[in-house]
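>> received
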Amino acid sequence: MSPATSQPAAHEGPRDSVDQLLEGWAHARPDLDLSPVAVIARLGRLRRIIDSELEATFAEYGLNGADFEALVTLRRLDQPGGVSQRQLMRELSLTSGTVSVRVERLSDQGLVTRSPDRRDRRNSLVRLTDKGRALFDRVTPAHVNTENRLLAALSPQQREQLVTILRQLLVSFEGSAGDGELPRLGLTLTPAHVTVAMRRAVGLPEVVGLLVRHVEDHGRAQRAHIQTGDVLVRAADRELRSVASLYAALQEGAGAGKVTITIVRGVDTELQAVVDLRPGHADQLEPLEVTAANHAGTHRV
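>> returned
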C-alpha cells in the first residue's frame, strides 16, 4: 500500500534552507509525502558543501579529490611490485579509461610509476613512488582535520548515531561485508528500496521489507517454510527496513535459539515463520557473503 501523505514534523530550533524548500513544496503539492525530500535534499546540500571544503584542502597539495582517492587506494593495498590497473578499476568502481587518466596524471607529477604486468601484457602495475608516499603522509592528516572541522557541530554521541544511520542506509544500497559469526538462514534477499520498486512494477501493493529472491535447499529458511517471493517485514519486534535490522534480530535471537519472522506473501497475506537458530549442520555451509550489483545490494544470509 502507498505511504500516507504527510509533511515533515515541525522542528524546534533554527530553520535551514531545506525547511524553506519544503514549505514551498507543501504549498504547491500538499498531497505529497515530503519526508523523503527532507532527508535527500539535506544529504545533497551537505555533500556539495563537504566536497567544496575537501577539494580546497587537496588543492593546497596540488591534488584533487580523484587524485587523493587513487593515492589512498594505492597506499591501502600496498602490494609488492604494485597494484594492477584492473584491481584499481574494481576498487574505485571506474572504467579502464578513467583509471588510465588518473594514473597518467599522478605519473606526470612523479607520484606513481607504471610497469608492465609480466603475467598479463594487457595490464600494468601501478606503484607509489617515494614522493607519492611522502605526499600521502602530508595530505592525509590535513584531510582528516578538515573532516573533523566539518563535523564540529556534532557531539561524539551524535556522530555515532549518524554513523549508525548512514551505515544502515549504505548497506541497503551496496550490500554488507557480512558477519561470519551469525547463523546462516540460506536466503538471498533484496533490500527494501528495490523490494518496493519490484512490487510496484508488477502491480502489487507496496510493502517495505526484504524480498526473498532465493531459498537454499535444506537451509534454515526452507525448514521454516519461507518461500521465494516472500517479503520479510519484521523479525521479533524489529521492522526489517534493512539487512542491518535482520542481523540485529538474529543476534538477539541466537540466545533463545530461534527467531520469529513476519512475512508478507502474495498480495497481502501475512504469515509467521519460526527460524531455528540452534547450532547445526546449516552452519557448515559456506560463510555469509554479499554481492552487490547495480546498487541493488543483494544480501545472502
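>> Strands lie at 83-84, 112-117, 120-128, 187-190, 210-215, 231-235, 238-239, 258-265, 269-276, 299-300.
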